[in-house]
Amino acid sequence: MKRAVSVAANCGLKLLVASVCFLMVAGCSPKEDGQIKVTGVAVDPPSVTITEGEMLPLKVNVTPQDAHWLYAEWSSTDETVALINKAGTLKAIKEGSVTITATVDGVQGTCSVTVVKNQTPVSGISLSAESLTIGKGATETLTATIEPAEAANKNVIWSSSDSKIATVDGGVVTGVGGGECDIVARTEDGGFEAVCHVKVSSIPVEALAFSNGSSFTLLADAGETYTLIVTYTPANTSDRDLEWSSSDASLATVEVTEEGQAIVTFASGNTGPVTITAGAGNPQRTASQQFFVQGAGPLVNMPEGKFYAGRKAIWSINTTAYGEATNVKWEASGKSLTGTEASFAPIEGGENSVVVSADYAGTPIRFEVNYEAEEWLINEALDGANPRNTYPVFNKECTRAYFITRGARRLYEIDLEEGSVSMMFNLNDGKNDNGGDIAVNPVSGDIYCSNQQHIFCISASGRQKWEIPVPTCTSASSIAGCGPALSNDCSVVFIPAADKRLIAVNAASGAVLDEYPVETTHIQMAVYGNNQIVLASSKKDGVEGIRFLSFAGDKFSEVKVMDCPSGDLSDITSPAINSSQTKCWFTCNRGVMVEVDLNAKTVASVKVADGYVWSPCLTADQNWMFFASQDKSLVNRKDPSAFSASTAVVYTNGNDSFLNFTHVACDTEGNVYFFVKEDGAGNNAFYRLNASRGWQPEVISSIEKQNNDPQAFFNFGGGYLIGGGGQNVRNRLLVRCVDAERARSWSGAGGDVCATKNANLVYGN
User: Of the residues 53, 239, 370, 587, which has the fewest C-beta atoms closer than 10 A?
Assistant: First the structure.
C-alpha cells in the first residue's frame, strides 16, 4: 500500500502562483475525504496457464499509483476449477477455465486462468520398511511413497513372491506360513518397483483367551447363538490353527467361520452347563468358556419392578425348572448368603451385581447377574405444603407413613410400596402456624391428628371417624407437645390437649372417658406397665412437674406429683423408655436430660449439651442412648446405666443449627440414622452411624440445596428413611431405603405410641 504525498509533488509541478497550482492539482487525481481514490485495477498477470495441483501468487496494480487503498477482495467464477485465497494465491484444482476477479474499493480487475492436466511422470517409489518379521496370522502395514510428490498417477500394484508364506492387500501384509518371501510394490506409471523382504517366523502361542468371554458362567437360552472371539499371546504367534470342542454336543455345537471366529449354537430341548474350548499350539494352549443353557424359563428369578438402593428384594433359583441345582450361594451387597432363596438390597444406586454359585447335576457353575438400582424411592417437592414441626409415623406393617404439614395444614400419606405421596385429609382451619403431632393405632390403623381447634380420628382409608372440639385452644396445635399414646390394648387413646388437659378417649367412638387438668399447653408423656402414665410439664401447684398417673375403670387417678431438679421444663421432647419399662428419659431446653425411675418414682437430671436437645433413642440391646443437640449439629452418645457420667460426641459438623425438630433413630443392629444440614449452602444429607465401625459417620445420600435454612422432619422405620422439610419455599419430601430392619428406637418421637407397653405391636413383635 502506498501513502498519498503532497498534491503538488504528485502533479510534478513547481511552485508558481498558488491559485494556478490549485487549479492544476484539482484536475489531476480524484479525491475523497482528502485521499486519492482508486480509478483502475489490473491483475498481474492478466492471464495464466497452470497445471493441476500447482499454486501461483497474483498481484494487484491500481491506478493512480498514489491512490489510497487497503486490500483487494478475490473471487473465482468456478472454485471446482481454481481457488483464490484472501492473500491472492491461486490454486489449480482440475482441468478447465476460470476468471479470477480482484475488487478494490468497488473497482475490479480480472485474470483469465486456464488449468491443464497434470502430466508429471512418476520417477520412483519407496516403502516404509525394507524388511519385516511377522508371525503366522499376524499383520503389518507397508506404506508406499511415490516420487515426485506431484506425480499425476500414484496408483500402486502390490504382489507377493510366495502367497503361501505371506499375502498383501493394499499394503497390509499377512503371515500365512513359515518361510521368507518378497512383497513388491510397483507403480502403474513407469513400472518402478520397491521390495520389502518378509520373514514369517514360527512364534509359539503362550496363551489363548476369549476377548468377549467371562470368568463367570454365561447364561444362554436354548436356540440362541453366541460368537466367541479368540485373542493370542503373543499377538504375532504363528500357532493359529485352532481346534474347537464342546463338552456336551447335545447342549451346544461350534461352527468356525472363514474369519476364524466360532459361532456357538445352543440346542433346544436340553438344559444344563456346557463348556466350549479352543486349543492351539504344541504343547496345546486352551481357552474355555462355560455356558448354562436355560430351557424352561430363567435359572434365576429376579424381583419384579424397580430396584432401589437399600431396599431389600427376594432373589431365588427357579427350582421348578432346575431342581438339580444344589449348594446355592449368593454374593451381593457385601453379603454372603446360602439357600435357593435370598433377600438383599443394592448397596448404592447405579450398577449392582449378584454372583450366584451352585452345583448342577454334579457340575459347579458360577454366574453373575448385573442390574441397575435407583437411589430415591421418593424425591418430590411439596409446593405450599411445609412439613416442618412434625414427625412421620408408620403403620404397623411399615407399608404406609403419615405426616402433617404447616401452612396449608393437611394430613399426607406416603405409600412406601408404590413410592408415592398424596394428600389424605384436609385439616385446614385457617390457623396453621405449625405442623401437628400425630399417632397411628397399630391395631385399627386409625390416625390421630389435629388442627388448632379440633382433634380428629382419620381411618386408614382417609375417612373422618370422629372429632373432639378444643374451642379454647390458642396454641399452634390442639394436641400439645407429643403425639397421642395408647392404652395397653389400644382401645383408649390418651391425648394431651393444648387447652391444658390430658383426656382419655374411646379410640373407636371418640367418646371422652375422663380428663386430667394440667397447667400448661406443653406436656410430654409415656405410658408404661399396666396403663401407668408419667407426665413431664411446667408447674402444677408451684412444682416443676413430674406427675405419675394411673388409668383404670375409665378414670385417671393421681399417684404422685414431684419436683424436677432441673428447674423449668420448657421445650420438652418426647421421651425414650427402656424395654423393661423401668426407666424413661426426657430432654428439654438448655441441654438438660431428665431420668425418671418408673418403679421407685424418683427423678434425676444432668446437663448433656448446650442449647436444644431433641428426642433420645435407645439401641435394641439397651446399652446406649443417642440424641441430637442443635448447637454445632451434634449427635451424642450416653450410657443409660451411668446417668451422671459424661456424654460422648460421635458426630458434629460445626454448623450453628442442627436441622430443627429432627431426632435420631436406631435400627435393630444398633446403627443410628439422622438427617442433617451439612453446610451453610443448604446442602443436607441422610447419615448413618455404623455400629460395627464404632459409630463411624457415613453419608447415605446427599441432597443438594434443599433449602437455604430448612427446618426438617425425620423418622426411620421398616428400612425407610423419611426426611425433608423447608421453610416457606422449596419444601421437599425425601424417602430413601436402607438395608435395615424396622427402627427399634423405643422413643416417643412422632407419637409412635410414646414407647408404651404396646410398642411391641408397633414394632411387629
Answer: 370
Task: Give per-residue pLDDT as tens, 613-642.
Answer: 878 888 878 889 998 887 777 889 999 999
Per-residue buried b or exposed e for 110-144, using 16+ beta carbons within 10 Å of the residue's own CB: bbebebeebebebeebebeeeebebbbbbbbebeb
Residue with cell 489531476: 28
Bridge-based pairing state of the strands 47-51 and 107-116: parallel
Where residue 427 falls among pLDDT bands split at 50, 70, 90? confident
721 with 672: CB under 8 angstroms?
no
CB atoms within 10 A of CB 426: 11
pLDDT 10s digits, 207-249: 999 999 999 999 999 999 999 999 999 887 878 889 999 999 9
**What's the pTM?**
0.69
Give the list of residues 6+ apart from residue 425 with CB closer than 8 angstroms, or none. 410, 411, 449, 456, 458, 462, 464
- Residue-wise pLDDT for 11-20, tens only, equals 333 333 333 3
CATH numbers and ranges of domains, the chain? 7-116 (2.60.40.1080), 124-201 (2.60.40.1080), 207-294 (2.60.40.1080), 309-373 (2.60.40.10), 376-762 (2.130.10.10)
Rg over alpha carbons for the chain, rounded to the nearest Å, is 45
Which set of grid coordinates corresponds to residue 208?
489363548
